Amino acid sequence: MIRSMFEAFKNLFKPVHTVNYPATELVLPKGYRGLIEYDKEACIFCDKCEKVCPPGAILFYQPLEGEKEYRYNPWLCIYCGECVRACPKPQEALWQSETKQQSALKEDGANEGWFVWEAACKQSREDFKAAKIKNKSEESV
Ligand code: SF4
Ligand code: SF4
Predict the structure, then answer these.
(1) SS3 67
(2) Atom 8 in ligand 1: residue holding the nearest Cα
(3) Ligand 1 atom with least separation from CA of 76
(4) pLDDT digits (tens, 9 = 90+) for 20-37
(5) What are the two backbone dihedrals, phi and then psi, of residue 77, each rounded to the nearest 5 degrees?
(6) pLDDT of residue 102
(7) Ligand 2 pocket, 69 CB below 6 A?
(8) Ligand 2: does its nearest atom lie under 6 Å from the Cβ of 49?
(9) Which of 38, 76, 107, 118 is most exposed, with minimal Cβ within 10 Å?
(10) Which burial class, exposed, middle or buried, applies to 53 when counting CB atoms under 10 A from its CB (0-12, 13-18, 19+)?
């Protein structure tokens, strides 16, 4: 008991190793694995990032015509970097920034409606596949 009290008293005068976040800004270490950044211009729409993402934080919507639409959910992302490793164009189409998730983002509605978006993406794939099969069968007639 006396020993633990002594330890506690001793620690009162040691330097603090924690940061009073969010009141104090965090200094992130170099190579910090932060939010995912995406550049549509460099993307070849191979879907590899979507396929390897463990929590499903990247989704592509497949319209019947035109390019796929990318969507990223920072609230689902676990910052594992698997998507960047799988991307054939890393650091061009997809990369991991040194930007930390901000608590203010919680108010931006990024997580709102994600399940609706997820269902829409799934449906868009099915519709696209069905349209392709239909076109092929019409061509072969
Ligand atoms: S870093 Fe991991 S969790 Fe986040 S989007 Fe990429 S694969 Fe998904
Ligand atoms: S893996 Fe890279 S190139 Fe492929 S869809 Fe994702 S961002 Fe685009």
Answers:
(1) coil
(2) 53
(3) 3
(4) 877 888 888 888 889 999
(5) -60, 135
(6) 66
(7) no
(8) yes
(9) 107
(10) buried
Buried b (16+ CB within 10 A) or exposed e, 28-38: eeeeebebbeb
Q: Which atom of ligand 1 is nearest to the CA of 79?
A: 1
Name residues of the chain where pLDDT drops below 50. Answer: none
Q: For ligand 1, is residue 93 a contact (CB within 6 Å)?
A: no
Report residue 11 as tokens.
């620690």
What is the structure's pLDDT at 92?
97
Q: Where are the beta strands (DSSP E) in the chain?
A: 36-38, 58-61, 69-72, 94-96
How far apart CA 99 and CA 87 sit, in angstroms, is 20
Residue 64 to residues 7, 16, 54, 69, 140: CA-CA distances in angstroms? Answer: 67, 57, 27, 12, 20
Residue type (1 letter), 129: K
Going from the N-terminus, what domains does the chain have, and what CATH number goes with each?
35-100+111-121 (3.30.70.20)
DSSP code of residue 99:
P
* Strands, E assignment, 1-132: 36-38, 58-61, 69-72, 94-96
pLDDT at 41: 97
- The structure tokens 């009162």 sit at 12
